[in-house]
Design a protein that fits this description.
The chain has seven helices and 28 strands. By secondary structure, it is an alpha/beta fold. Strands 7-4-6-5-9-8 form a six-stranded mixed beta sheet, with no helix packed on it. It has a six-stranded mixed beta sheet with strand order 16-13-17-21-20-18, sandwiched between helices. A five-stranded mixed barrel has the order 22-25-24-26-28. The structure holds adenosine monophosphate and magnesium ion.
Length: about 400
């Protein structure tokens, strides 16, 4: 067959293709297992939270207008109606000119619309409380329904469940959380020269470093990696291995053989599979030009470059967000990455028309910014990745970046 890349596409065009895959159908998990997952539907609040107005300070619940303008030198005096413990609920409205003693978390009586901190009061005895600071309506208290209103959406579909969301769901009594599925990501390596990690390679062989590294990245991205072994450089074997992977996985990542050389058989293998279309062959990015994306039986099949650095960079920049997208992340391709600003230590050249992802070592810098030292090296070397703490993208339109430029470094 005629070998050559399809049109090289930009990273943004590639993300658009990736975003066309529908997220996987959702499931329900216990609240304690929801962290790191993405909500599969809007969550409506089953009740008002808090149910009643609550104090957020130790002090006195008041009618704000009763201590309007109160100061140290011109205090207000209120009659104490009693004490409200943290569990007490008072149905009796707070009468004008009166206050009740509350603790942090006490439910407020009807009519009370502010709390004066105990620090700004003086108990004069005989049921009289001196108020030395005015309280605006709503001050030092939470309104009923201020966190969540019954029947209203509190968390949107596609939201990442972080500890903050777990806390809100817990307070609302939501013990079962609808979340996106954890994608099963099959990982295959191809190359006659590859042996499993546990084997001792002969002189012409190397260990399969990609599969374990890619599996670790999939797991970090919230997917379930499934390492499915090594296939030789043989079209039929690759096609068989892809078929087996597609039977069990939601997405397949095959590294090696994705370029346009005589031993690059991934495209040919894909062409043997039924219900399969190659959507992308060739990215205008470096490293990572020889990247393939196909859709087979409705699932994404990735052909990643075999070069260790290229495979990991493509996985980090595109593969991991794609897995998050499958898992239901509404912002998989738009959520800001964990990144730092850093000052570039050296000039970096870049070819126009190609977006470069430069590995960066971060070193202590001056003026509050770390220094980003480009780790230049061959994409077949593993140590360049080990030395790098981040990646900096040099846009396709630039011919490079000058030393001293402030850049963003995505943390690896
Ligand atoms: P390929 O993309 O198959 O042409 O491979 C490019 C380079 O990456 C070759 O030197 C391969 O030996 C190497 N390579 C391919 N797959 C792996 C792998 N799974 N682990 C380590 N190196 C690999
Ligand atoms: Mg190969």
């Amino acid at each position: 067959m005629d070998k050559g890349y399809l049109e090289l596409i930009s990273s943004s065009a590639f993300r658009e293709v990736l975003a066309e895959s529908p997220p996987l159908p959702g499931t329900t998990v216990p609240l304690d297992e929801a962290a790191g997952r993405f909500l599969a539907g809007d969550v409506l609040s089953p009740e008002d939270l808090p149910r009643l107005p609550r104090s957020s300070m130790d002090g006195f619940a008041v009618r704000a207008r009763d201590c309007f303008g109160a100061t140290e030198t011109n205090p207000s005096y209120l009659d104490l109606s009693g004490d409200l413990s943290i569990t007490a609920v008072s149905a009796e409205p707070l009468a004008p000119g009166r206050c009740v003693r509350v603790v942090t978390g006490s439910s407020l009586p009807p009519g009370a619309d502010a709390v004066v901190m105990v620090e700004h009061t003086q108990d004069l005895g005989a049921g009289t409380i001196e108020i030395r600071k005015a309280a605006a309506p709503g001050e030092n208290m939470m309104l009923a329904g201020e966190d969540a209103l019954a029947g209203q959406p509190v968390l949107a579909k596609g939201t990442l469940v972080r500890p903050a969301e777990i806390g809100l769901l817990a307070a609302l009594g939501i013990c079962e959380v609808p979340v996106g599925a954890r994608p099963v990501a099959a990982i295959l390596s191809t190359g006659d020269e590859l042996v499993p990690v546990s084997d001792t390679p002969g002189p012409g062989s190397i260990r399969d470093a990609n599969a374990p590294a890619l599996a670790a990245m999939c797991a970090q991205a919230g997917a379930q990696p499934l390492q499915m072994g090594i296939v030789g450089d043989d079209v039929a074997s690759i096609a068989q291995a892809l078929t087996r992977a597609l039977d069990v996985a939601d997405a397949v990542f095959l590294s090696g053989g994705s370029s346009v050389g005589v031993r690059d058989l991934t495209i040919e293998a894909l062409e043997l599979l039924p219900d399969t279309k190659v959507l992308v062959h060739g990215l205008a990015v470096s490293p990572g030009k020889p990247t393939i994306l196909a859709r087979s039986r409705g699932k994404a099949v990735w052909g990643l470059p075999g070069q260790v650095a290229s495979a990991q960079v493509v996985m980090f920049v595109f593969g991991c967000p794609f897995l998050a997208h499958l898992a239901g992340d509404a912002q998989a391709f738009t959520r800001p990455r964990a990144e730092v600003f850093a000052r570039l230590a050296r000039n970096v050249a870049s070819r126009q028309g190609r977006e470069d992802f430069v590995r960066m070592r971060l070193a202590p810098g001056s003026e509050g910014l770390p220094e980003a030292v480009p780790v230049l090296g061959k994409s077949g070397l593993l140590k360049t990745l080990v030395q790098a703490q981040g990646l900096a993208a040099i846009p396709a339109g630039l011919e490079g970046l000058e030393a001293g430029t402030t850049i963003r470094v995505m943390l690896l």
